[in-house]
Amino acid sequence: MNKPNQQLLSVVLFQPEIPQNTGNIGRLCAYADTALHLIHPLGFQLTEKQLRRSGMDYWQHLDLHEHANWADYYETHRDRNIWMLTTRGTRSHWDAPFQPGDHLLFGNEGGGCADYVHDTITPEFKLKIPQYTPHLRSLNLATSVGIVLYEALRKLKNL
User: Fold this and answer.
1) Range(s) of the domain holding residue 34
2) What is the percent of the chain where pLDDT is above 90?
3) Which uninterrupted H or E stretch holds 21?
């Protein structure tokens, strides 16, 4: 479902694998009036029961965009600031100068974003969530999206 109004931000999921995470993120995006872009292939069908249960009745209010692959997404949105959230980032999401219209890109649960995606994003647009316990691998995808999305919205609402 596409809505005509312009959201401040978009969340982009690169080949998500777990329907419950995507459902929760969809619900969060609907709640925050943020567009959600899904880059295929997905690890599930959008009709899966777990996805719909996680998104509950919010899914019908979601501004959802699907892209056949990275090239399809990137070709149509390369003019936007695309902030990649990655453990390879050297800059905290707290330090990012988010702007209206920015896209927040998150990799999938199993391996993040592919190297060819990393190759298209310049280092200054690669962010990380500060980690205070270095021996742990990473956060849940839906948790990561919530942390970064609401920090970006907080900054933009204070412009």
Assistant:
1) 9-157
2) 75
3) helix 19-31
